[in-house]
Amino acid sequence: MSGRGFLVAGLTAGLAVAVGLSLFCGGTGLAAIDGLFSATPTLDTLILRELRLPRVLLGVLIGAGLGGAGAVMQGFFRNPLADPGVVGVSASAGLGAVTALYFGLASLFALALPLAGVFGATAGVTLLFLIAGRGASATTLILSGVAVNAMAGALTALLMNLAPNPWALAEIAYWLMGSLKDASWTEIAFAAPLILAGLAILSTTGRSLDALSLGEETAVSLGVNLRRQRLTVVAGTALAVGGGVAVAGAIGFVGLVLPHLLRPLVAHRPGALILPSMLGGALLVTLADLFVRLVSGPGMPLYLGVVTALIGAPFFLWLVRTSQRVAP
Amino acid sequence: MSRLDFHHVDFGYGDRLLLRRTSLSFEGGGIAALVGPNGAGKSTLLKLAAGLLQPADGSVALNGRPLADLPLRERARMIGYLAPDGRSAWPMTVRNLVALGRAPWRQPLRALGTDDRAAIDQAMEQTGIADLAGRRFDTLSSGERARALIARTLAGHAPLLVLDEPTAALDIRHQLGVMEILQDAAKAGTQVIVAVHALDLAARFADRVLVMKRGAILADGPADAALSEAVVSEAFDVRAPGGIVPTRLAPLASSR
User: Fold this and answer.
1) Torsion angle of C-alpha atoms B98, B103, B108, B110, degrees rounded to 10
2) Beta strand pairing status for B79-82 and B160-164?
3) Do B81 and A217 touch (CB under 8 A)?
4) pLDDT, tens digit, for every residue of A167-221?
5) All domains in chain B, ordered by first residue
6) Which residue of A218, A223, A268 is in closest CB contact with B90?
7) Is B183 helix (H, G, I), strand (E, B) or coil?
8) What are A80-89's pLDDT values in tens digits?
């Protein structure tokens, strides 16, 4: 087995353990699994089936989407600072979802919220490509991200500003902090197909990302259809990130941290990084959510997005510092 | 064997034309060297030759088929292109980098095949970097990087190679080494089109030299004719009494 094979196997095993821990930590014991498919479940089984399982599954999906999107964006832009959060895709997805919440679309039909998220993410990532354009330097990319973030943030703030009552405002504010606490099978049913489609699309980009390591012209000379790849990255990112953000709010920095940590373990090949980043993202979100659940007391809910940001922001600072030193 | 034809090619950036009704043919193997001052249009001509730019008017055709009509993958198998910047965004190992040259031949989801591995080994052998296979690209010297990138280009086994200044920023020994690699490829039947700055290298290694200035081809022919005193002074605004003398330097130790 190759080094990458071991990595994928290790991450999968780690993810399985984390999922197991998260399912059975706190309250419910292993006994709860007995009545999982029974018609008259115990309370523990109900908690496991209707609360824990969807929450953990949603975390896995969202983490995989963020990790995969981060790896693909970094590969495509040839820039280790690209991340759905940093470049404003998450904020745009959030804006889409907040719009749906604000205008009551979310209560019209259940798919409205995730779709609005995907729509917002598509708008954000398209805007990013339009500003950052071809072969953008690190600075241009990050500045474009700042612009997209600012735009999405301003419009979100406007909606909050115009919120009809304090409860609506609070709903939006809490939602923006990012959380899996309200996950249910309904959310999974609507977000999962979108995220899974995004993951599948992102997975096809590996070879092109490898070729892009040597620059856009070399990639084209090697047979990469750049325009089609750009559309693929936009679609994959929007689906993988947008669907998740819409149901769980903004969970930042997962797509930044994971690809960066795992890159040396796949010999810096951008294509080989996609699958491990998906698994790693799923692992990180699962563990972070477990932590959130364990430390949250009654009446003192800690939000997942807050935790990942607290881990991610210092990491981002450190990354900016080191990437300045090793300019290519 | 492949044949590349420029037919009445117009090309410009913005509304200013750089190339005007340029017609050229490359066939029969050998090294064609493109020389000229900065901004003469060498890189533009090479990108047109590689199908990376499309002519505003006229056509560039490979074996009679316009490049614009060739499927990307097929074109990639026929034409190898080496970009001038010589960088890799990620510090991949030399072998993984050379393996990128096999991209036009690989099937989706399949690992490298026997053919691919043989081509990669051969390209690293040819460029003398077999012992660097496991080294990270960012730990290489400029000379080693240049050879690794050329190996990447050779690994695609394209019958036409288009190289934009593969000798830039190299010392004389490494310049000679790179040109010898191209010479070997040309001897094996590959048509090589290469932009170089050093006129003495062009004079020594090229079977044909094209001198460019402001998008026009001032001279096209064997080195001694194309690099005459008159042409060189017109193209570069420098005096070159007696024309350009091919370098007589040879690397002391083998340059590979």
Assistant:
1) -30
2) parallel
3) yes
4) 888 878 888 888 888 788 888 988 899 999 999 999 999 999 999 999 999 999 9
5) 3-92+159-175+182-236 (3.40.50.300)
6) A268
7) helix
8) 888 898 888 9
